[in-house]
Specification:
alpha+beta; Phosphatase 2c, domain 1; 2 domains; six-stranded antiparallel beta sheet; five-stranded antiparallel beta sheet; disordered N terminus; disordered C terminus
Length: 385
């Protein structure tokens, strides 16, 4: 999220005024503070002068010493040592100057990249509609916090809707697909009354993105060619809807089913998942799976296969369910502590940086109990639809 600092109103400004333009004479406004419009070009110009001027000064010092200093013209051992020391100092100054400029530029690039990544996969609030939540991600690309995993939580008129997905591949190459799917979900989650319509919106958005990417990257092979590398791209998607009474409904396209933490970790039942989005069209009928109910204090854990499929040096898989079971014994379950415990054990298990992106999303039900009649009414309405 990019935050802008609000501007402080000027003293004595009683009414709102638009921008005022007027000509200034040579002596007009000398005692006024320069505006930010003129300060920024001055700072940029000063930086350019320092960037180009300091190396020129170092070079001038070296040339002046070599041509004007009598000691530099001598060939004795002492003169050579002094000359070497002077040029060593000049070279060291140049190196430190270049290093400082590169570090400053790298810091600016990281700030811009971090802001862009937070806009794409924006930080989630700690609470939403009576649910406490926390999320974490590990990227397989060094220096990137966003990879091929995606998640989002939206409070809508139809309930709290969650998406967790995993793009084929990882790292920076998958960011474009992540942006297409997340952008579509953020609109469809509020517009569509039923989960099947949300899933179809995601499918259409992914298809458009792959067509445009195919025309850009492989214009000769054609957008619909079966041998086109883009035609093999796919995204696993898990759509979850949590109603006001805690009922959990889901549509799963090739993604791992979530876990429910209630004293222990138990995989929520959901049946056979649909194929991932991309290679095959969705079937005509999309039955929404009922995955049970989140009672007050229960937690729901969504994850990508980068967590469950992580292996150590001996080839053993990461025991995700056992680690979640240990975290579920704490009452109440803290979503943030669950994230920290899983990632700490995961990094110790693999003993290195992950080879695949790994994302976790934990939601805890902090709502009060609701009458059972309301639960049955919501269930019947969903079954009839």
């Amino acid at each position: 999220m990019i935050r802008t600092k609000p501007r402080t109103p000027r003293r004595g400004a009683g009414t709102r005024r638009g921008p005022r333009l007027r000509a200034r004479g040579p002596g007009d406004g000398c005692d006024e503070r320069p505006s930010a419009t003129f300060e920024r070009p001055c700072r940029r110009g000063l930086r350019r002068v320092l960037t180009l001027g300091l190396p020129a000064v170092w070079g001038a010092v070296a040339i002046t010493y070599k041509l004007a200093c009598p000691l530099a013209q001598q060939h004795g051992l002492g003169a050579r040592i002094v000359t070497s020391a002077v040029f060593f100092a000049v070279g060291t100054g140049l190196i430190f100057h270049v290093r400082h400029a590169l570090i400053r530029e790298l810091r600016q690039i990281r700030e811009v990249a971090g802001a862009a990544q937070n806009v794409l996969l924006r930080p989630l609030p700690p609470r939403i509609e009576g649910l406490a939540l926390a999320a974490g991600r590990l990227s397989a690309s060094h220096g990137a916090s966003v990879g091929g995993d995606l998640y989002e939580v939206a409070a809508t008129d139809h309930g709290v809707r969650v998406v967790m997905g995993d793009v084929r591949g990882h790292g920076l190459a998958a960011i474009g697909t992540v942006a297409a799917v997340l952008g579509s979900f953020r609109e469809a989650a509020h517009d569509e009354p039923e989960l099947p319509q949300v899933l179809r919106r995601l499918e259409r958005a992914l298809a458009r993105h792959l067509r445009e990417r195919s025309r850009t990257e492989h214009p000769a092979s054609g957008a619909a060619a079966p041998d086109n590398p883009v035609a093999e791209e796919f995204v696993t998607v898990l759509l979850v809807e949590i109603s006001q009474d805690g009922e959990v409904w889901a549509l799963n396209c090739g993604h791992p089913w979530p876990y429910r933490l209630r004293g222990r970790a138990q995989e929520m039942p959901g049946g056979e998942p649909l194929p991932p989005l991309g290679p095959f069209p969705l079937p005509a009928e999309l039955p929404v799976q009922h995955c049970g109910r989140l009672l007050p204090g229960d937690a729901l854990v969504l994850h990508t296969d980068g967590v469950a499929d992580a292996r150590d040096g001996s080839g053993r898989f990461f025991p995700l369910q056992a680690v979640l079971g240990e975290a579920a014994r704490a009452q109440p379950v803290s979503p943030q502590q669950v994230i920290q415990a899983v990632y700490a054990r995961l990094l110790r298990h693999i003993g290195r940086l992950p080879s695949d992106d790994a994302a976790l999303l934990v939601l805890r039900n902090d709502r009060k109990r609701v009458p059972r009649q309301q639960t049955e009414t919501g269930r019947c309405a969903r079954t009839m639809s």
